[in-house]
Design a protein that fits this description.
- This protein has 13 helices and 15 strands.
- With about 450 residues, it is an alpha/beta fold.
- It has a six-stranded mixed β-sheet with strand order 2-3-1-4-5-6, with helices on both faces. Strands 8-9-7-10-11-12 form a six-stranded mixed β-sheet, with helices on both faces. Strands 13-14-15 form a three-stranded mixed β-sheet.
- Helix 11 packs across helix 12.
- The longest helix has 18 residues.
- One of its GO terms (biological process) is ribosome biogenesis.
């Protein structure tokens, strides 16, 4: 990843995610009183004393227990430790040393990675020194008393971490395409992420709701860097109770907003559900580029017409995403996985594309010649004076007309269709703003004043 890595490890519910939020300066990790909220390893960027590094949050480490997700969590912790330059072991100062802490300390002492011991939940500075002193018996270095909630002691912790970081030149941020992977629970989002990055980055399980937090992962293809964001499965709102799942879904919605391209993953065996339609609508409303990925295609009995029939059903039920491209894949077998990247590249390119005003007006002129604007009952006909692109991501075009009220939905869809037919914009929504005569006069006045000032 280019930056030094600091892994945060410890038994469940000692405040690892709260510490990650404090060190990275954002509410990045989901925090809840119940153990086992964090399962996968999640990467967040941090800065201290001019040094950039990545903080890796991990699930609670439990040895000698193979129930539920614990074996997968152990594997994720071990992977995080293998790539870490420094490991921060977090313990609970209020609970004191436990047998689980001793097991983790013994395991860490066998690793070559430098260890910094963080004694969390030391809310009182006076009592914190006494609480931290108990942890000398773990033999993993000086215990640092701190409070992740209040922030006290975290500067001392970061000073010790910075001393252990390797000396590296400043790493420039690469231009990256942010790709959010969203869908209902258990449609194969985490399997797709693992297939993209070529490792077990997210825990995959048939149990619905395995992924809790939004998982970021960088991958490089050629000269292009991608940030894949695996998200929690999004269920119907009425089925979601307040707690970890509630926060997980909110993180998934935020992932859509901060992405350039969204991979909407569908389960081929389930078809297109009502929840899939709502997710598609949300992607369109947020103005994100999109690729529809139909996963588990290997489980479908097929003939020469199967794929065409499925495409027709999908286009009918997701008609507001008729500008997207779709691909039928199997994350399990790897079928067509690499082709998704090509569709992502094209959608991202179209999402940030700009078209000159002269080309836009050529399309308008041709569209009007084939289908004149409607006329009102009072005999007023709509007129489109000109159009110009005002922004990108998504592309937005302002159309200056005599009266927006004269242009009903049917004609507006016709004009949008002409833009897509002549200019493409495949994979991205486009926004059309219909501005009346007054807006046109205001723009002319502003442009005139700008020219006078520049001269």
């Amino acid at each position: 990843m280019g930056l030094p890595v600091v892994a945060i490890v410890g038994r469940p519910n000692v405040g690892k995610s709260t510490l990650v939020n404090r060190l990275t300066g954002m509410m990045a990790a989901i925090v809840h009183d119940s153990p086992g909220v964090t399962r996968d390893r999640t990467y967040r960027r941090a800065l201290w004393q001019g040094r950039d590094f990545l903080v890796v949050d991990t699930g609670g480490l439990v040895f000698e227990d193979d129930s539920e997700f614990l074996p997968h969590i152990r594997q994720q912790v071990m992977t995080a430790l293998s790539e870490a330059d420094v490991v921060v072991m977090v313990v609970d100062g209020q609970a004191g040393p436990t047998a689980a802490d001793e097991s983790i300390a013994q395991w860490l002492r066998q690793q070559p990675t430098p260890i910094v011991l963080a004694v969390n939940k030391c809310e009182s500075p006076q009592q914190g020194i006494v609480q931290a002193a108990q942890f000398w018996e773990l033999s993993v270095g000086e215990p640092v008393p701190l409070s992740s909630i209040h922030g006290s002691g975290t500067g001392d912790l970061l000073d010790l971490v910075a001393e252990e970081l390797p000396d590296l030149d400043q790493v420039d941020d690469a231009e990256e395409i942010k790709v959010a992977i969203v869908g209902r629970p258990n449609v194969g989002k985490s399997s797709l992420l693992n297939a993209f990055v070529g490792e077990t980055r997210s825990i995959v399980s048939p149990i619905s709701g395995t992924t809790r937090d939004a998982i970021d992962m960088l991958a490089v293809r050629g000269e292009q860097t991608y940030r894949f964001i695996d998200t929690a499965g999004i269920r119907k709102k009425k089925n979601v109770q307040y707690g970890p799942e509630f926060f997980s879904i909110n993180r998934a919605f935020k992932a859509i907003r901060r992405s350039d391209v969204v991979l909407l993953v569908l389960d081929a065996s389930d078809g297109i559900t009502e929840q899939d339609q709502k997710l598609a609508g949300r992607i369109a409303d947020e103005g994100r580029a999109c690729v529809v990925v139909i996963n588990k295609w290997d489980t479908i009995a097929k003939d020469n017409y199967t794929i065409y029939e499925f495409e027709k059903k999908l286009q009918a039920r997701l008609n507001f995403l008729d500008w997207t491209e779709m691909i039928f894949v199997s994350a399990k077998t790897g079928q067509r996985i690499e082709k998704i990247i090509n569709l992502v590249d094209h959608a991202a390119e179209q999402h940030q594309r700009r078209v000159t005003t002269s080309v836009i007006n050529e399309v308008i002129e041709e569209a009007v010649s084939w289908h004149s604007p409607p006329t009102s009952r009072q005999g007023r006909q709509g007129k489109i004076y000109y159009g110009t692109q005002v922004s990108s991501q998504p592309p937005a075009i302002a159309l200056f007309v005599n009266s927006p009220d004269l242009f009903k939905d049917n004609y507006r869809r016709y004009i949008e269709g002409q833009f897509r037919k002549n200019l493409g914009f495949t994979g991205t929504p486009i926004r059309l703003f219909w501005r009346g005569k007054r807006a046109r006069e205001v723009e002319r006045t502003v442009n005139r004043a700008t020219r006078v000032k520049s001269s």
